[in-house]
Amino acid sequence: MPSMNPERLREFTALLQKYKSGKAGLERRVVSAENWWKLRNRFEERRNGLGDDGGYRSESGWLHNVIVSKHADAMEAYPEPLILPREPGDREQARMLTAILPCILEQNRFEKTYDAAMWQKLKTGTACYRVAWNPEKCGGLGDIAIERVDLLNLFWEPGVDDIQKSRCFFCTHLEDEESLCEKYPQLRGRLHSSPFMATRFVYDDAVSLEGKTTVIEAYYKKRGVLHYCKYVGDTVLYATEEQDPEGSAENTEGLYAHGKYPFVFDPLFPVEGSPCGYGFVDLCANVQTAIDLMRTAFVKNTLVGATPRYFQRIDGSVNEEEFTDLSRALVHVSGNLGEDSLRQIGFAGLPGVYVEVLESAIRELRETSGNTETANGTMNVGVTAASAIAALQEASGKGSRDATRASYQAFAEVIELCIELIRQFYSLPRQFRITGGLGREDFVTLDNSALLPRELPGLEALHQPLFDIKISAQKRSAYSRLSQNELAMELYRMGLFEPGREQQAMGLLELMEFDGKELLMGRLAAGMGLREKIRELQDYKALAIALARRFRPDMAAGLLGSPNEAAPAPAASKTAAPAPEREADPTVRARAAAATAGIPG
Hints:
With 601 residues, the chain is an alpha+beta fold.
């Protein structure tokens, strides 16, 4: 019978409430960061005690532009995995995983997930992935599911910097009550007001919670085994831990064989005592507020100077309506118009030093965030050399490269969890379409038979294949197409595609790395094979002519093709004039370095 009784579920819910209280500060910061991203500056400034008179308030996009620029750097360095074996016998399986894991990522639309995770990381300071097994995918066969998870719906033990050290881990989400009852009939008549509600973002739409209930997923470790319980209120929907009537545990495998919580955190700027970090909103919001307040003051000062105001005596003789109506050519007065009847209010414009203070605040925000003019392609006056521009842009991309390397570490953990799920659940063979050798389209089959522990001769312990994961960038910047075309032209000028040089070209291409290399090697290999066949045919023809001249002279002329045609004589050796050396264009090198300034490696 299930070991999860209502009392045990109430203990889980009480622990969940404790975890939620522990991350209250993080939740406020995350909600505030999202408001800043949506340019709800006024709401956050009012909450911080800056006040709001209800008039005009500047909401500039300097901080918004920082996040957009960093996100572009992250997506240009979109990762791809390379699986390396730790033992010689696992090379073939590592090669298969390297080819198939991108297919699994593509089936999960991981590029879209990675895109959303990078927005989350830059805004709130932390991205989070869930790598789980979804038994409903592939028509009930099941497959790996990778998704981004909202930090407001995750809860862990306060004070730990690694979620794997947490006693329990919770994930919550709202679901429609009618849909839940259709899927889980045991819930009918048992859905009441939820005892737990996660913090929510401030949405632009009016989001109603009527007819919604909180579903809680509890992950916990028991004797080194990962267990899972999904419940609503005091009703269990699914649990991995079961007991027999005597109370001894039956399920010793748990949820996943790898024994880890299936979540991966990717912090931007890490902090002690938390798996989460802080983002660019936390770093730059204070300076952005100063910029907005100064711009607000400038606009109001400009409006005051552009709209003259006047003092008028209570018993003044000027017609107010006619005076304020700029379309009237005449303004009527009663009696004599004294000098003190109407007097303009004095105005003093802001001195230029305030503009310098504003520009200084903008420079501070850009320097602090690393979103400098150099990183955006704008150079200071006096810097004209291509090599100097490339050096400045490469230096300005250090922050982006560092953040991208951290994302690669989280991506490597995602790939590691995918491999472990393949090891546990791919008991039936799956088919994948991959790009094979020399650019061919191949269809391969994968199961977990080669990944399971196996006995080795002379060893009592079981051997389980292990792999190292290396992450690199696909380098799909806007410059890549032009760079690839120039590379092809350079190889052509070097004579790499001349007939008879296929072997040297293949040896050189094996040491290079660029898009389309496999296709080019395939064409060279095909050309080399055709040349070998032609050479063999020429050898056979020469042998036939020699035999015919000796034994059947009447057939020799027919084999030669015409009476005047003679056997091919060895051509005079001549050395082809070498192609003129082309001096490397520093501008091309500079553009290549600038295009990859934010990409690690």
